Amino acid sequence: MRAVVCTAYGPPEVLRLAELPTPTPRKNEVRIRIRATAVTSSDCYLRGLRLNPNYRVMARLVVGWNAPRRPVLGMVLSGEVDAVGRGVRSFRVGDPVFGFNRHHFGAYAQYVCWPEDGLLAARPENVTNEAAAAITFGGLLASHSLRKADLRAGQKVLIYGASGAVGTSAVQLARHIGAEVTGVCGTTNMDLVASLGASTVVDYTVEDFTDGQQRYDLILDAVGKRRSAAALERCQRVLAPGGACVSVDDGTPKLRREDLVSLGGLAAKGQLRPVIDRTYALDDIVDAHRYVDTGHKRGNVVLTVP
After folding, report:
1. Which domain holds residue 183?
2. Among 123, 141, 181, 282, which residue has the least CB neighbours within 10 Å?
3. Pairing state of beta strands 29-39 and 15-19?
4. Rounded to two decimals, what is the model's pTM?
5. pLDDT tens-digit readout, 15-69
6. Contact, 299 vs 272, CB < 8 A?
């Protein structure tokens, strides 16, 4: 099978196309023929080992010293079940599926074997592979963050980084809950964020949201503390009594299969719009990573797998 191998930690050029053996599913595993995946910020952080220096040694011990032990990156996939291992009961050959796996990786390839009881769900027939790949990463992290903050209908939420993968999902999911949403993004993305359901959009390049009079029950940092720390230094000033500031970098997110199923259902009903900035073929993986590294993507970057 064709796959992309991460040969070392470093810039996008460390990624190489290779021919690898097609995996065979073990007990309780399904083999998935991947049709689409996504280049996430987490993929790029791992490829470049762009971590706090205090964590780099630990990361090398866990993930691999000179290169990832699991050299095929990619946490998100959409495709169909191609084969099943012994004991599999949830899926059959031919079932359309989509999912996420932050430990096994392997989605930058034509085939991968994942456990049937992981973050894997049936893909609704009217949701394309590209759309499913686009909603999974950001949708799961946004679902976790909004649930962690116990966001409820009628509350006010500000989403910092509303035009990224997590942010575009968070805006829509918060509106689905019934919250009033303020989105913070750059000038060129204001119309996009408004179209997703934000009632107010703040351009961070010309305005500091912490200088406003509005008070929020939740401020959600959807871009991570590496990029948001300075902007959120004064966020306490605009929190309502009992309000919370939550970051996607806070601890290890508890991702649930029920959220994945819900995301698919919302997308099928047109209530969750996948935001795809660019689509690349798997062969153009280096260009895709270069683009995500700029930090200016709108929503998601999707890879199609031939």
Report:
1. 138-247
2. 282
3. unpaired
4. 0.95
5. 999 999 999 999 999 999 999 999 999 999 999 998 777 778 888 888 888 999 9
6. no
